[in-house]
Design a protein that fits this description.
Elements lengths: L12 H20 L4 E6 L2 E3 L9 E10 L3 E10 L5 E12 L14 H15 L2
Antiparallel strand pairs: 1-5, 2-5, 3-4, 4-5
InterPro entries: Cytosol_ACT, HOTDOG_ACOT, HotDog_dom_sf, Thioestr_dom
Pfam family, one: 4HBT
GO molecular function: long-chain fatty acyl-CoA hydrolase activity
Amino acid sequence: MPSDLNYGLSLFGGRALQWIDEEAAIYAICQLETNYLVTKHIGEISFEAPAMQGDVVEFGLETTKVGRTSITVSCLVRNKITKKTICQADDIVFVQIDPETGQPAPHGKTLEELEQQTKNEIKTLNL
């Protein structure tokens, strides 16, 4: 959309970062089955190709690490039609918090459990 573009008429990097944070948060919320997550850290972001007005972008997310109170994901943003990578964001860390204290709280999940959950979901979709 025009409101998402920079002066070069390509996707504004700040808007891409906003979308990445939102999509990664939704993904992490679904993985940990909790709404009480906050963004702690977003690591390196590499912009590789522009997205132009009218392009449709897609997000691919993957869990890379699970801590006692945290989940770390990576996000690949690419052009839906051409499959060209627009940007890659690694090391996006979310922390579960206790809603009453605002302090980190254990979520009780492991990486192995989340990987098995994903495999089961894929099997269900392939029926």
